[in-house]
């Protein structure tokens, strides 16, 4: 029987990451069993203070908030291997509201940028498409109850889930932005703390 760790974060062992931002803390459960290289990359970058002072450079309310680029442009950032690394898709992880996923420029182009899914509502038409595509019933129910971005599934590697601080994610998602979806006033990561 397939388990869905995002639906049972309280039953999963560590590690956790706490993203300390200007707006408050966002605590994330990481999933190294399903996305080992992605979690390794994220933890090592965090422990090297790589994400300190990164801004949320792309913010779209009712969609997601994106960060992880030290240049602040959305065009920079690199992995611990100094080259793009492969996607790690799992049939146990989905882009539900609160999912933490890798940003990319197409297949197998992961670096340091990531986003947190903020969308609160899944369109009934999309839910029907998920049924037709034989998505697991537990995941369809979760999308219906929680929201999310199912069109990103198996296109962006999910490697974590927010366990506290979604109010902070929602607050960041509603800041004023310019025409390029970049916040008019920087919203910064002060640091990311890793714990077991």
From TrEMBL:
One of its GO terms (biological process) is protein folding. Keywords: Isomerase, Rotamase. Its EC number is 5.2.1.8. CDD domains: cyclophilin. Residues 24-194 form the PPIase cyclophilin-type domain. The keyword Transferase does not apply. It catalyses: [protein]-peptidylproline (omega=180) = [protein]-peptidylproline (omega=0). The keyword Secreted does not apply. GO terms for molecular function: peptidyl-prolyl cis-trans isomerase activity. Belongs to the cyclophilin-type PPIase family. PANTHER family: PEPTIDYL-PROLYL CIS-TRANS ISOMERASE-RELATED, PEPTIDYLPROLYL ISOMERASE DOMAIN AND WD REPEAT-CONTAINING PROTEIN 1. PPIases accelerate the folding of proteins. It catalyzes the cis-trans isomerization of proline imidic peptide bonds in oligopeptides. This is Peptidyl-prolyl cis-trans isomerase. The lineage of its organism: Bacteria, Bacillati, Bacillota, Bacilli, Lactobacillales.
């Amino acid at each position: 029987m397939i388990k869905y760790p995002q639906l049972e974060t309280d039953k999963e062992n560590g590690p956790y990451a706490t993203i300390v931002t200007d707006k408050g803390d966002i605590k994330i459960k990481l999933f190294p069993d399903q996305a080992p290289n992605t979690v390794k990359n994220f933890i090592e970058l965090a422990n090297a203070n790589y994400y300190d002072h990164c801004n949320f450079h792309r913010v779209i309310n009712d969609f997601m908030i994106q960060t992880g680029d030290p240049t602040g442009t959305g065009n920079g950032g690199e992995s611990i291997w100094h080259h793009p690394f492969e996607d790690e898709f799992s049939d146990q992880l989905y882009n539900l509201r609160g999912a933490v996923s890798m940003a990319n420029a197409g297949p197998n182009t992961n670096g340091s940028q990531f986003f947190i899914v903020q969308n609160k509502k899944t369109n009934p038409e999309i839910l029907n498409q998920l049924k037709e595509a034989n998505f697991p019933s537990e995941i369809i129910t979760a999308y219906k109850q929680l929201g999310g971005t199912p069109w990103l599934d198996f296109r962006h590697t999910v490697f974590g889930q927010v366990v506290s601080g979604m109010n902070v994610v929602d607050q960041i998602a509603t800041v004023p932005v310019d025409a390029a979806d970049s916040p008019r006033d920087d919203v910064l990561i002060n640091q990311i703390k890793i714990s077991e």
